[in-house]
Design brief:
Layout (H helix, E strand, L loop, with lengths): L1 H33 L3 E2 L9 E3 L1 E17 L2 E5 L9 E7 L5 E2 L4 E5 L2 H77 L4 H73 L2 E3 L4 E2 L1 E2 L2 E3 L2 E3 L6 E3 L3 E6 L4 E8 L11 E6 L2 E13 L15 E8 L11 E18 L4 E3 L2 E8 L2 E12 L3 E6 L6 E3 L14 H5 L1
Antiparallel strand pairs: 1-2, 2-24, 3-15, 3-19, 4-14, 5-7, 5-13, 6-9, 7-8, 10-14, 11-12, 15-18, 16-17, 16-19, 17-18, 19-23, 20-21, 21-22, 22-23
Length: 471
Amino acid sequence: MRRIGVMMRAGFTVRGLLVVLPLLAVLPAVGGALLPGYGRPDWDGGPLTCRVLRGDFVQEVVAKGSIESAENVEVGCDISISGFYRTTILELVKEGTHVEPGDFLARLDSAPLEELRAKQRILCFTSEASLTQAERAYEMAKAARTQYLEGTYPQQKELLDAAVIVADEKHRRAEEYFEHSERLYELGYIRLRELEASEFSVRKSLIELDLARTKLHGLEKYTRRKVEMDLKCDVITRRARLEAARYNHQVNLERLALLEEQIKKCLITAPEAGQVVYAHLHHHGHSHMVEEGAQLYRNRVIIRLPDPKRMQVKATVREDRIALVEKGMPVSVELEAFPGVELTGKVERVDEFPEPVSYYGSRVKVFETIIALDDCDVDLRPGLSAKVRIRVEELPSQLLVPVQAVLEHEGKDYCLTFDAGRLEAHEVGVGSNDGRYVVIREGLEEGRRVVLGTAAYRKKVNLPGANDRET
């Protein structure tokens, strides 16, 4: 049984060789047919070589992108009020629908706003009651001041004036009676005690007169001014409280009106004519899809109405190629939706800073690049995948060799030739390269064969400085 197994494996190996050997014999011929200028020389054992060809050198930066409108009318959650943070999409117009101004686009859940409106109405009723009380208190303060100045004070002054007049008259009569009593006492008609009583009446009336005058003076100079100032301050205070209550009520009414307006905005209509495109949001490794039942934060765009007459391509260029791209460079665009159709345009804008790198996505940095498209007859739609070729350099009739045919050594460039079984290095001046071909400015002539894969022959050829280092 073991011999049979060995024989089977051996037979399998022989059959494999019978299949592979003819393929190996055909490969050089196929390679020569597919890759012009490539091949081996006539002698055996030589390295793979290619010819120095002359042709047009075209360097392009290839990037992927998508079609979008250069001008979009963005429609979203235009609700912006304190206390509101997010709501739910209840109803949406179908994506791709052509709408006219005023047509229905979406309906949002207004329940959070209606709850805020109910609370605000309570605040409005409370502030209205406070305003009414403040108005009444202010009017009463003004009335109290007027009543004192025009009623209480004049009455008090008249009473005190009358008291002064009465006291003055009483004092005058007391003096006259005292003078009469003195004459009667001198004539012996009254006793000394009666004269002293008359004198006491004079002093008493004088005291009463001074007291009445003092009260009148105190009323006019102190009491009136104090009471008037107190009443004036009370009027000012009540007026300030009234203004505060009026302002507070006005603010509450304005907020209530704003809430009413925001509730109306939960029904979203088209501001202009266009075709509906959902504004899905992709960031931080996840997506916020625009769909019925999705949570929607305020100020978030949910629908775009692109202008189909002004379309562009938004592409992303890798950071290792972005330095080659400049504004105004010609661009050719291929669309997956229209195979064989090539659009033209030019670079409109190149962002100075890279796009944010997702934590869960690729760490390769890319730069957003906008391509303005020329007029075309293709029915372009936003979101179509596009492949752009940005022509960064075009040099006609240049000597070209593959990048594998150039060897860099001590800051200089060399190409190797293989003549009569001997490798020889030729210093060359190189120009631009696109990662596949290098422009040869000097050092080689057209049609000359050069070695490919020069890095493998670095130690087999004499290069300037190499012998010095070995010694």
